[in-house]
Amino acid sequence: DSLGLAAADTLVAGYESGLVLQGLPYFSCDGTENMMGTQADIPGTYQEYRQKADLRKLVKSPLKITLDAQLDQSAIVYSVKLNSDESLPENADLGLVLAVVEDSVNAYGKVFRHTVRMIYPDTRGEALNLGPSSEISRSRGIPLVSGWLPWRLSLVAYVRDNHTREVIQSARARVFSAV
């Protein structure tokens, strides 16, 4: 659970201890809208998930993220630029989290779409000293792990408020090979 949500932590601990828990599927949208389990039927559950996600789309973010990523011999090299507007709170406890995502992972006789391969640097993210109406840039490398298929990789960056666990903004970039 890259958002560090208590409900997901409880699910994971229960499964690791061998307890059978009700609660899957688990839905979380931007770290604020959380729902465990299903309604009376699967279509009703999906509809409720969809409504919660649609409502979150209406929330204006105080951040804009520009993200680029390319692959070199041993790393995914990324650059990210964050621009805030005047509505970003002063001294917010923000973290920049990156997720390496691989599409169409074949495992256990199935194909898994959009599989998170790594959370970087960790679930709290790299601390950001970003105030209202400001801009910061970062360029770093994420170590490449053998077994990942480079032509199927994307990088997702999101900024979260570590106090509320709300995702403030996110962006996605395909990982291109350096020529």
Task: Report the order of strands and helices.
Answer: HEEHEEEEEEEEEE
Q: Cα distance, first to last residue? A: 35 Å
Summarize the amount of helix as a percent range.
10-25%
The largest sheet is:
8 strands, mixed
Low-confidence stretches: none
Question: What is the general shape?
Answer: flat
Mean pLDDT: 84
Assembly type of the chains comes to: single chain
Structure classification: alpha+beta
Name the beta content range: 35-45%
| Radius of gyration over all CA atoms, rounded | 18 Å
Total count of strands: 12
What is the count of helical runs?
2
Describe it.
The mean pLDDT is 84. The chain has helices at residues 6-16, 42-57; strands at 26-29, 33-36, 63-71, 75-84, 94-102, 105-107, 110-112, 115-120, 126-128, 135-143, 153-161, 167-177. The longest helix is centred in the N-terminal third of the chain and has 16 residues, at 42-57. By secondary structure, it is an alpha+beta fold. The strands form three sheets. Strands 3, 4, 5, 8, 9, 10, 11 and 12 form an eight-stranded mixed beta sheet that branches. It starts with 5 loop residues before the first helix and ends with a strand. It is flat and about 50 Å long. Strand 6 (105-107) and strand 7 (110-112) form a beta hairpin. Helix content is 15%, strand content 45%.
